[in-house]
Each structure stands twice: as C-alpha cells, then as structure tokens.
Structures
1.
Amino acid sequence: MNEGLVIKSTGSTIGVLTAAGAVVDCRVKGNLRIAGIRSTNPVAVGDKVTLEPQADGTTWITSVLPRRNYIIRRSTNLSKQSHILAANIDQAALLVTISHPQTSTTFIDRFLATCEAYSVPAIIIFNKTDLLTPEERQRLDELQHLYESIGYPTCAISAKYDDVQALKQVFIGKTTLLSGNSGVGKSTLLNAIFGATLTRTADISSAHDTGMHTTTFSEMYPLPEGGWLIDTPGVKGFGTLDMQKEEVGHYFREIFALGRQCRYSNCLHCGEPGCAVLPEVGLSIAESRFASYLSILDDADETKYR
Ligand SMILES: Nc1nc2c(ncn2[C@@H]2O[C@H](COP(=O)(O)OP(=O)(O)OP(=O)(O)O)[C@@H](O)[C@H]2O)c(=O)[nH]1
Ligand SMILES: [Mg+2]
Ligand SMILES: [Zn+2]
C-alpha cells in the first residue's frame, strides 16, 4: 500500500509527500472519519496517510495512520468545531509579540496548556524586539523571566533585523509547529531561517495593528539539515479541549507542583480549605497565570452543559 506524509493542507486539496519523493495533490475519501475527534479537517499537516490512486488520475487519501500527538484549536465561536493544526510534532514554538500586535498572556497560557495536555515540549520566541519602547522592553523581561522560571525556554529576537541563524539549532532534526497570533512574524522567521522567501508575508494594517492573515493554510517545510518547520495560519484564540475541571491544573506546571500540597487531591484552588495554591497567587504564582487557569476552568464548566 502507498503511504505518504501530509505536508500541505489547503482544505480541499492536500499535498502529500510520497515515499518516492514526489508531492502529490490528493483528496480525502468522502467517508473518511477519524474516530473520537470532531474536527473540521480529518487530515492534518504531519499526518501519515495511505493513498489510493484512482482510475481518473486523481489520488485519494484512504486512511490516516495513528497519530503520536496533535495540536488542536477549538474555534472560539459558538460552533465549537475543532481544527487540527498539525499532527506528529516533536515540539511547538510559540511566537509572541509584546506589541504590534500584542499577544495576551491568556493566549500564551492556553497554548502552553494545550501543549502540556499532549506532552509536546514548547518554547516561546518573543519577536519584534526592534519595535519595543523602554516600558515594553521591561514587560518583555518580566514575561521571559516568568516563563523561564516555570520551565519554558524563551528567546527574544527581531526576525526582521537580527541574524537568526543561531536559532536554527533549535529546529534541526525535529518537527516543529510554529504558532502564534496573526502578524507576529511566523512566516518572516521561517523566511529568515531558510534565507529564501518561501512564504508570503504581509504588512500589518497600521490602523488596527491586526494581522492580515497572510498564511491561509498550514504547510510543512523541510530543513536542509533535517527536520521540518510547520507554518500555520495565525490563530485568534485557543479554545481548550474538553478537559475535566480537576485536570486543568495539571497543565499549569507551577500550579500542579504546588497543588500536591493542597488538603484535597481534587482541589480546584478556588477557596477550598487547606489549599496551597490560592495563598501563593501574586507571590510564587503569577496572577496572569492564575487568571488563565481560571479562564480554562470556566470553559470546562461550559463543556459540562454541552
Ligand atoms: N519591525 C518588525 N516587523 C516584523 C518583524 N517580524 C515580522 N515583522 C512584520 O510583521 C508583519 C507580519 O509578519 P508575518 O511573518 O506575515 O506574520 P505571520 O505570523 O506569518 O502572520 P499570519 O500568516 O497572518 O499568521 C510583516 O509586515 C513583517 O514584515 C520584526 O522582527 N520586526
Ligand atoms: Mg504567516
Ligand atoms: Zn488547592
């Protein structure tokens, strides 16, 4: 049977790299469904799939091989549909900008929690350091310090003006998902690392500082040294998965660590007696992190009534 690796997904057609080294445009066989996942895309970039050439010259994707992991984004609108950003990844790199546009800590924390849920190592790359005012530079320092202290590697760059070749080392030999809000510079970083213009970038509309959503589909790029980088369309928000309330704290490393000292093992850190976490909010646990934790707890509440 023919097997291939999905390297590009535009929705209707899917680019698959075959064992022979060719990229074939394929279509998903109509009745293909992946058990247990309700998503808008049954096949995602990074998937290994089986192929079946048809008599009319087209090729069908007939099945998706079991996934090692996947990163899913639940749409923030009411449809509650999910979209798989990528599958079978080794690590995720989140691009964050302090300004132009501003990435919220809720967004960062939801992304990190999603990575934790799938045991995908995450790194945070702060971009556009060239644009920072002194106050924003201080904010950058604070956030870098915060996330490093929790255990996430961070770095701060200007993808546009710095020499980012050193950053390449982080990506060699691994499949990395590049994610972040629209306009934070994912495609720019990718281009800078490859030293060639592989994907389009766009100017941010200065009126709103919002991105233009230049990248409209996910695509995987091979590194000459080995490994893959996956450019994804900018994400607005990160809905989280159907987590049990008691589970949410597991995906915030520092809350999880401290939570072991709570009197009740299923403590939600919302005012229960003997809670070890709540008294530390604003001290060893950042208020922004706890606020993100609470926002996901809220979601968990919501899913309960779905
Ligand atoms: N000043 C400055 N501008 C940057 C930097 N990195 C990217 N940009 C600009 O920011 C804009 C958006 O960059 P993109 O690379 O298209 O952003 P993206 O994250 O791929 O956006 P989507 O594809 O919409 O998700 C472009 O005008 C880039 O030139 C940087 O380090 N400094
Ligand atoms: Mg892009
Ligand atoms: Zn507690």
2.
Amino acid sequence: MKLHEVKVLGRERFGDHALLRYRWSGVAHEPGQFVMVRALSSPTLDPFLSRPLFVHDYDGEVVSLLFEVRGRGTARLAREDAGLLVSTPLGRGFVFDGKEPVALVGGGVWVSPLKFLSRALNTSGIAHDIYLEVPATASTAYADWLSKSYPHAVLIPTDGSLNSPKTVLSHLGDFSRYAAICASGPSEMLARVKEVSTVPAQLALRERMACANGSCYGCAVPLWREGARIYTRACIEGPVFGAEEVVDVQKSGD
Ligand SMILES: Cc1cc2nc3c(=O)[nH]c(=O)nc-3n(C[C@H](O)[C@H](O)[C@H](O)COP(=O)(O)OP(=O)(O)OC[C@H]3O[C@@H](n4cnc5c(N)ncnc54)[C@H](O)[C@@H]3O)c2cc1C
Ligand code: FES
C-alpha cells in the first residue's frame, strides 16, 4: 500500500485522546472511510503495521483524525512532531438515498466518523440529529472537547455499563420518525442498534486490520447475502455495513 507523506497542521491532546490535522490534496474522502496511518519518524519501523483510523473530518483541504492513545502505534502518532504517512481514503462509508431525517448515534472514541458524516449531510441539506454517549470512564478533558466539537448533539452521560446502549437509544424515542440510523459506537451499542432498529441502519465496524488492501483476509466479517452466510473483507467492502446483513457484531476490544 502506498503511503503519502503529509504536512501536519496540528496535534491536540485531551486526556487519552488526540486529534491530528493534516493537509490533503489527493482524492476526496467520503464519510465512514478510513485511512492507514503511521508516524514518519519511526526509525525502526516499530510498530511495523500502519494503523487504521476513521476520517474524523474533511473539508476538501484538511483531514482530521481523532483517536484514543492505546498502544505503541497511536502513542507515536500523538507524540511525534515529525510528519505523517497516510494512505488514500479506504473502504466504503455511509450511503444515502436522500431520505430524511437521519439519526447519527455514537459513543466513546467511535464517534469519530460522525463529525464528517454530519458535515456531508449538512452540505446535502439532509436533516439529522446526533446522539452521543459520554461514558463515565471518559476523561473530563475529552467530555469537554466532545461538547465543544459537536455543539448540536444530544450528549448522553452513562455509567458505561452494558445497559448504556439502551439508555442512549431511549433518547431517540420512536425510531420510525427517522428514515435511517447511522451508528458508530462500542460493539454493544452497534449490536443494540441492529437488534432494535425498526428503520434501515448502517453500522461502522472496525474489525482488526493488517494489510487493508484485501490480501490477508484478517478483517473478514460474516454477512447474510441473498439468504446465504458469506464472509467479506471489512477493509474493501466495509467498514460500514447495513445492520440487516451483519450476522452479529463481534466484540473488538472496545
Ligand atoms: C476501520 C477502523 C477504524 C478505526 N478508527 C478509529 C478511530 O477513528 N479512532 C480510534 O481511536 N481508533 C480507531 N480504530 C482502532 C485503532 O485502529 C486501534 O486502536 C489502533 O490500531 C491501536 O494501535 P496501537 O498500536 O496504538 O495499539 P495496539 O498495541 O495495537 O493495541 C492496543 C489496544 O487496542 C486494541 N485494539 C487494536 N485494534 C483495535 C480495533 N480495531 N478495535 C478495537 N480495539 C482495538 C487492542 O485490543 C489493544 O488492547 C479503528 C480501527 C479500524 C479497523
Ligand atoms: S485487512 Fe487484510 S484483507 Fe482486510
């Protein structure tokens, strides 16, 4: 996979989360797509694999990535002052048929792609509401940043327990008032949307990825297609899938 060196415009830190902005003049991004990214200044190529991150926002010139610092790869991305290596936008994101209104539902760091999605819906004049879970485990710095960054969202504090998705989804009221639901949250939240949504829903999955070019099959997800259970590669055909075709939402280390 070809990685492009990009000019970093800024890095911000809020608690365990970081936001990174870079200039991008290549092919346009779509909401729900992701990039493979690594720090340019990693002299030992450690970690060896680039990391997948959703496109948090894109205005035609500047891309931003929002991520939780978890291990070596994300720590380097958050820390280094040097440049970045990023792939072109990858995968398939959210799709729209113009029907409105749309509900955007997210939680934890997985709210990331909803910012760009909201921007795209605004550009297309599609009415939408945003519901974001703020779990008790989130740092104050990240919770403050969320409320500033998503000023029109309904922020829903939860205790972070397994009941949290139920609490979040109760804020939507009757699902049938929405034409569609787009969800990007912890696996329990995605599973709950799949289980209870009475309108078409799209889920942003994030299976572990290695090559992200379709050759390793490490990201295979089971889907229902034409009555048969098949496996497909999340890095090529996803990471966003229709909830009805996802067999089950697998736990992926939230
Ligand atoms: C399509 C896609 C989009 C993603 N977008 C984002 C994003 O916008 N923001 C963000 O913070 N993270 C995102 N992730 C997860 C991110 O890629 C991992 O957190 C990152 O690769 C961890 O790398 P590391 O070297 O810091 O940690 P590692 O040392 O590789 O792992 C540290 C911890 O992170 C967990 N982890 C690794 N990969 C995943 C994963 N795919 N899902 C859940 N847990 C994982 C591991 O279980 C481990 O506990 C995305 C993943 C995918 C597949
Ligand atoms: S990550 Fe290798 S096929 Fe998807």
